[in-house]
Amino acid sequence: MKTYTHILFDLDHTLWDFEKNSEETLYTLYEQFGLGKHGRFDCNSFYNKYKFINTRLWDLYNKGKITQKELREDRFTKTLIGLGLAEHELPQGISEAYTSMCPTKTAVFPHTYEVLEYLQPKYGLHIVTNGFKEVQHIKMSSSKLHDYFKEVITSECCGYKKPDRRMFEHLLDKLEIKPENCLMIGDNYECDVEGARAAGIDQVYFNPEKIKARKHPRPTHEISCLSELKQLL
Q1: Domain span holding position 36
Q2: Using one digit for the tens of pLDDT, what is the confidence trace for 147-178?
Q3: Which of 19, 112, 114, 155 has its CA 20 to 30 A from that of 72?
Q4: In which band, very low, low, confident or very high, does the pLDDT at 1 lie, cut at 50, 70 and 90?
Q5: How far apart are CA 87 and CA 138, in angstroms?
Q6: Co-location of 62 and 135 in the same domain
Q7: Does the global pTM surpass 0.85?
Q8: Is 96 helix (H, G, I), strand (E, B) or coil?
Q9: d(CA 75, CA 72)
């Protein structure tokens, strides 16, 4: 085992439970914007369609194929039109309401605080995220994660997005540390694992769903629960 001095975490889907927080927000918006009055879809259909569309748009965003503005606007437009609403029926302000409400939700993955309490005295902890700067800081503040981390690197602040190795190198340069002294933990194989590997950083692939997929080369480590980090580190 290498001697690590710094641990890098992704935020969404790794510490902050995006799916749970997003689901709670979308159910609230379904009621708030009276989406049931159209009689074409229920709350569950709204959530599932949004999740499908949002995941694909984030993939395009991470690959630099769409902008932040397009992501935020298109995810609700495509969701609601896909569920049968006409353009004149689309509720005004729903995207802004989601962006305002969702980051204030506080659900995190099991053992998050326990593991961070364990790691903080031993390592420098940092966030490396493709999420939007103002939103990520609200999430971390609302869920009481801020105090655990020394640096929060977003794609907006450094000009690069994972898996671009330059995003990781930006943090290495800022901290004046070597890649072999770092370990990256994240749920996205392409962005977190392959991106860190390209920068010479060891990786922990966080796979809570235990999805069996061909991953070559394999990550340095793979875990399905954050509590496993206490055995690794």
Answers
A1: 18-104
A2: 999 999 999 889 999 999 999 999 999 999 99
A3: 112
A4: low
A5: 31
A6: no
A7: yes
A8: helix
A9: 6
Residues 75 and 120 in one domain: no
Strands (E), 94-233: 124-129, 151-154, 182-186, 202-206, 221-223
Which residue type is seen at 112?
T
Is there a single domain that holds both residue 117 and residue 205? yes
| Four-residue CA torsion sign, 186, 166, 148, 202 | positive
Phi, psi of 41 (to 5 degrees): -160, 155
Q: How many domains does the chain have?
A: 2
Using one digit for the tens of pLDDT, what is the confidence trace for 101-113? 999 999 999 999 9
With DSSP H G I counted as helix, E B as strand and the rest as coil, what are the percentages for the chain, rounded to 5? Answer: 55, 15, 35
Whether residues 141 and 206 fall in one domain: yes
Q: Find the helix packing angle between 18-32 and 43-62, rounded to 10°.
A: 130
